[in-house]
TrEMBL record:
This is Lipoyl-binding domain-containing protein. InterPro entries: Biotin_lipoyl (IPR000089), Single_hybrid_motif (IPR011053). It comes from Clostridium zeae. It holds the Pfam family Biotin_lipoyl. SUPFAM superfamilies: Single hybrid motif. Coiled coil: none annotated. Residues 93-147 form the Lipoyl-binding domain.
């Protein structure tokens, strides 16, 4: 088990994806508790209720009144084009708002360039955390557009 832990931690820089994989593996192995400690890092998981992945700083009180820190992977959606970004549809309704749950491939915005409309779709299931651009503004290639938490 120590070799797997060293892989997860590398030089004590904890990778969120690897942490989620470790938690999932421990849950699937029906472990009740997992503990690891070295000079600069301490990990302790107790599986007394279902863990729901949420943002890093969020906590959730579960049925048995245990507090579990929850972890999400943060996704930053970047522009693929130089274009005008459209955040609302033709009926003036936002495609997405902060806090919305979206499914993978759901339309979350549109690019418009030379009267051509290209849909911007969600790369994964998740929660919209932040809109980093304003509706109808020109954007550059590779500009940060939307922040979401992967579920």
């Amino acid at each position: 088990m120590n070799d797997g832990i060293k892989c997860v931690m590398g030089n004590n820089n904890l990778d969120k994806n690897k942490l989620i994989e470790l938690i999932t593996l421990a849950q699937e192995s029906n472990l009740k508790e997992f503990y690891y400690e070295n000079k600069s890092l301490k990990l302790n998981f107790k599986f007394e209720a279902e863990i729901i992945y949420k943002s890093i700083s969020d906590t959730k009180i579960l049925k048995n009144e245990k507090i579990v820190n929850e972890v999400f992977e943060k996704i930053i959606i970047k522009s693929e084009y130089v274009a005008r970004i459209k955040l609302v549809d033709s009926n003036n309704h936002f495609f997405v708002k902060v806090g919305d749950y979206v499914k993978k491939d759901a339309k979350i915005a549109e690019y418009e360039y030379l009267n051509v409309i290209i849909d911007l779709k969600a790369p994964c299931d998740g929660i919209i955390k932040e809109l980093l651009v304003e509706h109808n503004h020109m954007i550059d290639f590779n500009k940060n557009l939307i922040v979401m938490d992967r579920l």
